[in-house]
Specification:
Binding site for L-tryptophan: 282, 304, 312, 384, 414
CATH topology of the largest domain: Phenylalanine Hydroxylase
Strand order of the largest sheet: 1-2-4-3
CATH superfamily of the largest domain: Aromatic amino acid hydroxylase
Binding site for Fe cation: 319, 324, 364
Oligomer: single chain
GO molecular function, one term: iron ion binding
Strand content: 5-15%
Organism: Darwinula stevensoni
Domain Biopterin-dependent aromatic amino acid hydroxylase family profile: 139-487
């Protein structure tokens, strides 16, 4: 029995937790209690940094500020109830920390998986209440001495990890701010809670729930759809217009019908490998961008309030389906989105903030020029907002060439038109600019999305990079053989210019020379 008496001078038996991080034990009054035990270095700020792990990996975590003041949130979810510490019996420079969690039965399995993954990074050891502790090896001591909690920035590495990161909603969800158009509408608030509950219950890999939209919701959609449909031919970029009729044919894009996310997700999967995932509202920039690395787009299912169909203080299904989806069906744009997501994984808070700003002024509010120099829109925030779409291509708008340094210094406006917009010559140029910026992000590793395993590979060693090189070499050989056969049969490449086989062979040979 564990009585959570660490630091009080009483005897305490701590169960082994390496095989099961979340332990259920019977307290003094027969109440089930959940404990996590781990060690950390005895230094200023170590505990606060460790608690960030709980905030990152627990979907309903109530922050340490409430715990340290003795308050326990009554909101359903996972609450951090108690923190106790004692000097480690194994090493004088360490502290042993016991954390008590208030966790409902429905969340125990998820919390257990999340903490196992995170605490394994903290060198979680086996503890017991005896006097004898096994000595640590010199190698493990050296590793622990060089460990710094500041270096840990959790990010999802497999698709199922999105079940954790996609639940941390920043704004709205089932609650609305006082200035929200639907704040005083009890029917709308009840409807929003319904959508929020669906999103919070969703698990990666499940079919997205199909929604029976009300007549009022379909009417609101129709008002927006009709006006935007009139503006798209003269304002939207060619890549957007190319996919619009395809969505009408295959996904039910009509004035009198709100497309179902599962139908759209299936379509995108076939086109570019992207899928949709329902969320309850605004996610943190880090969590939203991280999903893009897996070619997963976080998408809401609710619709804005009918009292003001041309304004919404938050993303809704009109914004996602009308603004984002047509370009997510474009291979180049899909790759652009994924590269931004990959660049965010493990990045510092400042770098993520800059990436989010770059995302905002490209994928949300970006413009590009045609061969004739005419400005066209590819940003979803513009393509789903009638008033700002008209404004962005008017003479009144300030439109500047896209420069990452200038963009990251520009304020993102939420409730008003943007003070300035940025354009590139093409989507490819925007992608190149983003790649240049991503190369400046300081990370001690690289990341790569493995489409076969649907996971993110952390390239932190020469061996891991070598494995990637082997895969690329195989792909290049396939491409080289295809080009040779096309040349031998007198075929052409569609007018795009022939890739020289000699140049391709040189690349393959260079990869052979550099691989370990």
């Amino acid at each position: 029995m564990c009585k959570a008496d660490i630091g009080r001078g009483k005897n305490c038996e701590i169960r082994r937790v390496s095989s099961q991080v979340l332990k259920l034990v019977e307290g003094e009054k027969g109440k089930e209690e959940n404990y996590v035990v781990f060690s950390l270095r005895n230094q200023v700020g170590a505990l606060a940094r460790a608690l960030r792990i709980f905030q990152v990996c627990l979907p309903f975590f109530q922050g340490p500020s409430s715990v340290l003041t003795g308050a326990v949130s009554q909101e359903k979810g996972v609450n951090l109830v108690k923190i106790e510490s004692r000097p480690s019996r194994r090493r004088e420079s360490q502290m042993e920390i016991l954390v008590e969690l208030d966790c409902p039965d429905s969340q125990k399995a998820l919390v257990d998986r999340a903490l196992k993954r995170e605490l394994s990074c903290l060198s979680l050891k086996e503890f017991d209440g005896g006097e004898e502790f096994p000595p640590e090896s010199p190698a493990s001591l050296a590793s622990l001495d060089s460990f710094d909690f500041d270096d840990i920035i959790w990010f999802p590495k497999k698709l199922s990890d999105l079940d954790i990161s996609s639940k941390r909603v920043l704004m709205y969800g089932s609650a609305l701010n006082a200035d929200h158009p639907g704040f005083t509408d009890p029917i709308y608030r009840k409807r929003r809670k319904y959508f929020a509950d669906l999103a919070m219950a969703y698990r990666q890999g499940e079919l997205i729930p199909r929604i029976q939209y009300s007549k009022e919701e379909i009417k609101t959609w129709g008002v927006i759809y009709r006006e935007l449909f009139r503006l798209y031919p003269t304002h939207a970029c060619p890549e957007f217009l190319k996919n619009w009729p395809v969505l009408q044919r295959h996904c039910g894009y009509r004035e009198d019908n709100i497309p179902q996310l599962q139908d759209v997700s299936n379509f995108l999967k076939r086109k570019t490998g992207f899928t949709l995932r329902p969320v309850a509202g605004y996610l943190t920039p880090r969590d939203f961008l991280a999903a893009l690395a897996f070619r997963v787009f976080s998408c809401t299912q609710y619709i804005r309030h009918s009292s003001d169909p041309f304004y919404t203080p938050e993303p809704d299904c009109c914004h996602e389906l009308l603004g984002h989806v047509p370009l997510l069906a474009d291979p180049s744009f899909a790759q652009f989105s994924q590269e931004i997501g990959l660049a965010s994984l493990g990045a510092s808070e400042d770098d993520v903030k800059n990436l989010a700003t770059l995302y905002f002024f490209t994928i949300e509010f970006g413009l590009c020029t045609t061969e004739t120099g005419e400005l066209k829109v590819y940003g979803a925030g513009l393509l789903s907002c009638v008033a700002e779409l008209k404004h962005a291509v008017s003479q009144e708008a300030v439109v500047r060439p896209f420069d990452p340094d200038e963009v990251t210094r520009t304020e993102c406006m939420i409730t008003t038109f943007q003070q300035r917009y940025f354009y590139t010559r093409s989507l490819e140029q925007a992608k190149d600019k983003m790649r240049e910026f991503a190369a400046t992000i300081q990370r001690p590793f690289g990341v790569r999305y493995n489409a076969y395993t649907q996971s993110v590979e952390v390239l932190s060693s020469v061996e891991k990079v070598s494995n990637v090189v082997k895969e690329l070499r195989g792909d290049l050989c396939i491409v080289g053989n295809a080009l040779r056969k096309i040349r031998e049969t007198g075929g052409d490449d569609g007018g795009g210019g022939f890739v020289e086989l000699d140049a391709l062979k040189t690349v393959i040979l260079q990869m052979d020379d550099k691989s370990p």
